[in-house]
Write a structure and sequence with these properties.
397 residues, three-stranded antiparallel beta sheet, 15 helices, 71% helix, globular
């Protein structure tokens, strides 16, 4: 069966909305606009924050800018290709793509590339793929499919509720071996949220939260470097040139930003003072250069993106598109929580975690996977709108 239209121009015309008698627009313009705004902000701040690091590492201040442009072009390709794939394909092959992700997670433990003590990347020529980013999306896709197939078991039997958690444990264990606790926490929170929205019993829901929180606390307490992050987060100024160095430099960036910022390109902290300035702590550089106003704008855009995803999921569920509805809800929870963790860590509200700011931070794997998640949201909304238009036409005829 051919799931792809004969040309991309055909589906683009369809998604723009062929003017029916109802003048329907068959894609979410608000979501697309939010994503474009975040892409632009991401390019601008990556260009500003990465130049000193590019000069130091390669002698070329435009090194990371050039790579980020390549990643953005890759995102366009993902958009063009991904938007043509019907959601029934994602549902049908959800188990297979999750299995591929698990195999890749195993593979990365043996032949993966190590950066800053973490073995998370598979090298494919000049491109490094962070497999855990792919695993997040594929697991949420599998979980949405499972909820639809076993909805009665999930809501009425403890066995049905805990079955997908066994799969989660396998994925989480492989990611923790890299190690990457931040990704596991994001996946856990999103999983709990999806099961709650599916109607799981409160008893099972709270039992899962208690067990999950206990395990995370244990993983922090019995791992010295994680415990050091928590203690430095509580009082970074106690050791400002040691354990608390990264957070104190980030807080200085926020302080220098004031109301209107120092102006684009005028950050001091990016000049080799703040580590990971163009990746995990890019929000701090944005705060320094654009101030409180810029921070507020970026937070509102991220909030709008997450709420739009949840809105698309709600509409899909009301239209009885259950797989796509739960998947959209999961993506919305994922985007909102990861944004909260990144911005919270940069501003000292949460312990430091190596998570990117969705669609803004430098990093090909994160940007491409997040783009694919957005493409899925666009397709979910498109199929729902298309069904509504077709139903209207059938009613009229």
């Amino acid at each position: 069966m051919n799931f792809f239209p004969s040309s991309f121009s055909a589906i683009f015309k369809e998604m723009k909305g062929e003017r029916s008698n109802k003048h329907a627009i068959l894609y979410d313009r608000t979501l697309f606009t939010l994503v474009c705004c975040l892409f632009i902000i991401g390019f601008v701040i990556v260009a500003s924050a990465s130049m000193p690091e590019g000069q130091r590492l390669t002698g070329n201040p435009f090194h990371f800018i050039e790579r980020h442009v390549f990643y953005l072009l890759g995102s366009v390709v993902i958009l063009v290709v991904g938007v043509q794939v019907p959601m029934k394909v994602w549902q049908k092959y959800s188990g297979a793509i999750l299995l591929c992700s698990i195999v890749a997670l195993v593979l990365v433990l043996f032949v993966g590339k190590t950066v800053n003590g973490s073995q998370r990347w598979l090298s494919m020529g000049p491109i490094n793929i962070q497999v855990s980013e792919i695993a997040k999306l594929t697991f949420f896709c599998y979980l949405a499919s499972y909820i639809v197939r076993r909805h009665t078991e999930v809501t009425e039997r403890a066995k049905g509720f805990y079955k997908p958690l066994a799969v989660f444990v396998i994925v989480a264990a492989l990611i923790l071996k890299q190690p990457d606790l931040g990704t596991v926490v994001v996946m856990f929170v999103t999983t709990v949220g999806m099961l709650f929205l599916a109607g799981a019993k409160i008893r099972d829901f709270f039992a899962l939260i208690i067990v999950g929180v206990s395990l995370v606390v244990g993983l922090i307490i019995f791992e010295p470097y994680r415990m050091a992050r928590v203690t430095s987060f509580l009082d970074p100024w106690q050791d400002p040139f040691g354990k608390g160095y990264q957070l104190t430099q980030s807080l200085m960036a926020f302080g220098r930003g004031d109301w209107l910022g120092q102006g684009l390109g005028n950050s001091i902290q990016k000049l080799e003072y703040l580590p990971e300035a163009h990746t995990d702590f890019i929000f701090a550089i944005w705060a320094e250069e654009t101030g409180f106003v810029g921070v507020l704008v970026l937070l509102l855009l991220q909030l709008g993106l997450a709420l739009r995803a949840l809105h698309i999921g709600r509409k899909a569920l009301l239209a009885q598109h259950f797989f796509t509805g739960y998947l959209a809800m999961g993506i919305g929870l994922w985007l909102s929580f990861q944004s909260a963790v990144n911005t919270g860590a940069a501003s000292g509200i949460l312990p430091t975690k190596g998570l990117t700011l969705p669609l803004v931070s430098y990093g090909g794997s994160s940007l491409w996977v997040m783009t694919l998640a957005i493409v899925i949201l666009l397709r979910i909304d498109h199929e729902r709108r298309l069904d509504c238009v077709q139903a209207t036409h059938r009613g009229v005829s």
